[in-house]
């Protein structure tokens, strides 16, 4: 009996001792070996120079300095959102990165920032907009249906309380885990006006079985907190006087709804047409609001067109696919600027149609909701 | 030819060769399967992982020998060898990862990135456990570990080579990846049966 007790004591003592010894060894090693000393990160040809403590991944060190590179997988090297250009000091491309980098990206020294370790001075290039990107915590204060599959969300920003953006930009919303689906990050254009700095509004279409949209439609409730980051994107009105063609369908309304109301607030008097493509009358929304804008803006026309509306219905507006309707109203598009928003298929079709009626490709601005 | 445990140089070589061929951990004991299935797609990465395994088994078998002989046996704690070996192997791989990460970036990219994969590789633990059952001295234990690791290295490199030659897109969908790899391993292990009985240590 006594012998047994002694044995048990020796065994536990040995295990505890070994555990302590080895963990102490590892902790000391980490402190002394993995200390890379101070390193500098040079961003965009010395536009910004950071002095940091080396050792971690580029992604996490930049985040500590409040520069948020998009990341959906938390640095596990599986989402490929965190791409940046590392001009030098990044070390060789690791096998984790290889599958995500195209030949062209490799030529431009694109890397996954979560896999690049900062162990010496390093110089990188990131889009300038990332400097103004902030992480926000907000509260969903309203969620209302606009059509059978499109909802409008209104989020109040809690921390920080204000966002500065240009109409047309987007944020990245982080979904929460539910029923075995992981947390993901998805881009959504802001439909709110930039002057409403304390709120972000989104117009979101349900994607059948989509991870993020299912969470938004079925799990997210008013009053709950949400996490987002932004603003991102180059989709904005150009500072010219050219007449404008807006073309969008469905939730592609979001950035344009923001731009139009921004034009009204700022008293911008440019001529503008808005072609909105939908299937049937039940896919239309904001009709009254847009008619109201037609009266308030000096030279604005809203032209919805339905491609699957039954022949005999009471619809008196345009019918047919949107590219044909654009051609009918504006046979010569040279001199115009176009702003497109929607699915990749719709955008490609529009670009083809617009260039065939005289619009230079560089006058076509778009956000693909891919 | 049948040899029994001999002493001297020839004996040491026999231990190494038999651990690598007759007792190949991957092909005759089917240990270290998960990392083998995952990484054997290309010869390059197979060689990297194989080299990392060889290095880690050589050193940890020797380390575990010392701990077993001078700590576990005297304290009568033989039954704790599983736990002890696992913890020592895990700590060792982490330490090595840190060291080469710090001092040799090129080696880190060649070998280091595989180390987290093999922290819990059962082939490595297996070789340490087999070592315990043999009447080896320190040097012999080290060579037994090195031979076992080398055998694993050889097997995964061959598998990598065969997989590179096979055009997986020609295979039926269900056989792609792990399916065809297991079949390759099965055939290769039949071939390795030929070695058994040549040497007995
Ligand atoms: C710059 C930008 C701005 C965006 N703005 C908006 C916006 O304002 N409103 C909005 O609703 N969406 C917008 N999106 C799209 C949005 O980011 C998501 O892609 C979309 O909501 C689907 O996400 P999910 O997680 O629900 O689906 P996932 O789980 O990602 O996808 C599920 C399946 O649906 C397919 N799929 C993905 N997206 C679509 C789609 N749009 N249509 C059809 N099938 C699809 C996928 O290929 C997949 O098979 C924008 C995208 C970008 C890049
Ligand atoms: S953060 Fe997801 S791949 Fe880098």
Walk me through the structure.
The complex is a heterodimer of chains A (370) and B (201). Chain A is α/β, with parallel strands linked by helices and 370 residues long. Chain A is built from nine helices and 17 strands. In chain A, strand 13, helix 7 (287-296) and strand 14 (300-306) form a beta-alpha-beta unit. Chain B has 201 residues and is mostly helical. Chain B is globular. Chain B has helices at residues 8-22, 33-39, 43-72, 81-103, 105-110, 115-118, 122-132, 138-165, 178-193. In chain B, helix 7 packs antiparallel against helix 8 (138-165). The interface between A and B is medium-sized, with 22 and 22 residues. Bound molecules: flavin-adenine dinucleotide and FE2/S2 (inorganic) cluster. The site of flavin-adenine dinucleotide has 22 residues of chain A, from strand 9, strand 10 and helix 5.
The amount of helix of chain A comes to 25-40%
Largest sheet of chain A: 6 strands, antiparallel
Percent range of helical residues of chain B: 55-70%
CA-based shape of chain B: globular
Q: What oligomeric assembly is this protein in?
A: heterodimer
Number of helices of chain B: 9
Order of helix and strand elements from N to C terminus of chain B:
HHHHHHHHH
Q: What brief labels describe this structure?
A:
heterodimer, A: 370 residues, alpha/beta, Ubiquitin-like (UB roll), Elongation Factor Tu (Ef-tu), domain 3, Rossmann fold, 6-stranded parallel beta sheet, 28% strand, B: 201 residues, mainly alpha, disordered N terminus, binds flavin-adenine dinucleotide, binds FE2/S2 (inorganic) cluster
Task: Indicate the topology.
The complex is a heterodimer of chains A (370) and B (201).
Chain A: H1 2-33, E1 38-43, E2 48-53, H2 58-64, E3 83-88, H3 103-107, E4 110-112, E5 122-125, H4 129-132, E6 134-145, E7 150-159, E8 170-174, E9 185-189, E10 199-205, H5 211-219, E11 225-232, E12 244-249, H6 253-266, E13 272-278, H7 287-296, E14 300-306, E15 318-319, H8 322-329, E16 337-342, H9 344-356, E17 364-368
Parallel strand pairs in A: 1-5, 12-13, 12-16, 13-14, 14-15, 16-17
Antiparallel strand pairs in A: 1-2, 3-4, 3-5, 6-7, 6-11, 7-10, 8-9, 8-11
Chain B: H1 8-22, H2 33-39, H3 43-72, H4 81-103, H5 105-110, H6 115-118, H7 122-132, H8 138-165, H9 178-193
Helix pairs in contact in B: 1-8, 3-4, 3-7, 3-8, 4-7, 7-8
């Amino acid at each position: 009996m006594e012998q047994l007790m002694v044995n048990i004591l020796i065994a536990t003592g040995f295990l505890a001792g070994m555990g302590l010894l080895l963990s102490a060894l590892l902790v000391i090693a980490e402190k002394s070996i993995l200390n890379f000393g101070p390193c500098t990160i040079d961003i965009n040809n010395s536009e910004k120079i950071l002095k940091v403590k080396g050792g971690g991944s580029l992604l996490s060190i930049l985040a500590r300095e409040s520069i948020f590179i998009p990341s959906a997988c938390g640095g596990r090297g599986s989402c490929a959102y965190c791409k940046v250009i590392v001009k030098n000091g990044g070390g060789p491309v690791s096998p984790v990165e290889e599958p995500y980098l195209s030949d062209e990206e490799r030529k431009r020294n694109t890397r996954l920032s979560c896999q690049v370790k900062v162990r010496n001075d390093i110089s990188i290039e990131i889009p300038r907009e990332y400097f103004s990107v902030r992480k926000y915590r907000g509260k969903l204060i309203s969620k209302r249906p606009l059509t059978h599959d499109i909802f409008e969300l209104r989020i109040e920003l809690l921390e920080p309380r204000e966002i500065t953006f240009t109409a047309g930009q987007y944020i990245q919303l982080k979904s929460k885990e539910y029923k075995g689906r992981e947390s993901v990050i998805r881009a959504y254009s802001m439909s709110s006006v930039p002057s409403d700095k304390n709120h972000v509004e989104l117009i979101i279409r349900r994607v059948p079985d989509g991870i993020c949209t299912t969470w938004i439609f079925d799990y997210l409730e008013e009053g709950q907190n949400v996490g987002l980051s932004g603003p991102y994107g180059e989709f904005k009105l150009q500072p010219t006087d050219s007449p404008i063609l807006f073309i969008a369908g469905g939730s592609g309304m979001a950035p344009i709804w923001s731009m139009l109301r921004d034009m009204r607030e700022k008293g911008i008097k440019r001529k503008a047409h808005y072609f909105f493509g939908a299937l049937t009358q039940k896919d239309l929304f904001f009709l009254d609001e847009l008619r109201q804008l037609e009266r308030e803006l000096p030279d604005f026309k809203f032209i919805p067109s339905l491609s699957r509306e039954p022949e005999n219905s009471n619809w008196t507006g345009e019918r047919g696919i949107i590219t044909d309707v654009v051609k009918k109203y504006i046979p010569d598009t040279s001199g115009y600027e176009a702003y497109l928003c929607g699915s990749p298929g719709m955008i490609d079709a529009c670009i083809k149609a617009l260039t065939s009626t005289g619009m230079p490709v560089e006058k076509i601005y778009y956000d693909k909701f891919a | 030819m049948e040899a029994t445990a001999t002493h001297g140089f020839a004996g040491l070589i026999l231990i190494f060769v038999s651990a690598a061929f007759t007792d190949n951990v991957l092909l005759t004991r089917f240990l270290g399967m998960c990392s083998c299935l995952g990484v054997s797609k290309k010869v390059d990465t197979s060689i990297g992982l194989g080299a990392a395994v060889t290095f880690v088994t050589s050193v940890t078998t020797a380390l575990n020998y010392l701990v077993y002989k001078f700590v576990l046996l005297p304290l009568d704690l033989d039954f704790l060898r599983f736990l002890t070996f696992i913890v020592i192997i895990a700590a060792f791989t982490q330490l090595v990862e840190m060291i080469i990460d710090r001092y040799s970036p090129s080696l880190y990219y060649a070998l280091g990135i595989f180390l987290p994969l093999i922290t819990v590789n059962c082939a490595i633990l297996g070789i340490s456990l087999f070592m315990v059952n043999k009447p080896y001295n320190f040097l012999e234990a080290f060579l037994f570990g090195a031979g076992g690791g080398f055998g694993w290295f050889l097997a995964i490199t061959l598998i990598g080579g065969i997989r590179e030659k096979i055009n997986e897109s020609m295979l039926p969908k269900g056989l792609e990846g792990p399916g065809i790899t297991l079949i390759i391993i099965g055939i290769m292990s039949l071939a390795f049966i030929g070695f058994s009985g040549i040497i007995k240590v």
